[in-house]
Amino acid sequence: MKTDPSLPLEYGTEQNRLNIFGFWIFLGAEISLFGTLFASYFTLVNRTGSGPTGAELFEIAPVIIETILLLASSFTIGLGIHAMRIGRPKAMITFFLITLLLGLGFLGVEIYDFFVYVHEGASLQTSGFTAILFTTLGIHGAHVAIGLAWGLFIILQIKKHGLTPATTNKAFIFSLYWHFLDVVWIFIFSFVFLKGMM
After folding, report:
1. 46 phi and psi, to 5 degrees?
2. How far is CA 105 from CA 65, 73, 75, in A?
3. Cβ atoms within 10 A of the Cβ of 127, count?
4. Residues 137 and 189 sit within 8 Å (Cβ to Cβ)
5. End-to-end Cα, the chain, rounded Å
6. What is the pLDDT of residues 25-34, one digit of tens each?
7. How far is CA 26 from CA 121, 173, 177, in A?
8. What are the tens digits of pLDDT across the range 35-88?
9. Residues 6+ apart with CB under 8 A from 91
10. Among 36, 63, 117, 158, which residue is least crowded by beta carbons within 10 Å?
């Protein structure tokens, strides 16, 4: 497999460039998924029936904590990719581990939020609003959980094989996925939580 030394290692082969292009196409499908969820949310947001509204459910503190954790994880994964590009696998692994710990903290707070919502009388069956709320947050949370497992797998591969065109390509693609989840969360934070608290 011929590598191009003028490009970063993750782009170094034709196959690597195709992998990255293919992943951008996959992210396009993910944008469609979340776009559909947001459209459904905006359609159902006022269909609360006798259940709680967003203003009654949402609390700013957990949402701010979740946002800080996820945005910080986006920063640390960026540092991890930088460490990868300058050939420092130990630093890269450290930043990836910090990213995963921040992601785990985010999931922990989100699960806590779900218990609070249920305690306040919200469930999938309560109203159209609570159904789409749980669905949207649940699908994003499931993506984060998948990302945690994927990121751990990347770390194990880097530890075993070092920084090769294959491992750096996988790590870079994972970083695109993680940044995408952060962007989706910014939309959830802005249009679900902040708008819902008003």
Report:
1. -95, 5
2. 9, 10, 15
3. 21
4. no
5. 56
6. 999 999 999 9
7. 37, 11, 10
8. 999 999 999 999 988 889 989 999 999 999 999 999 999 999 999 999 999 999
9. 79, 80, 83
10. 36
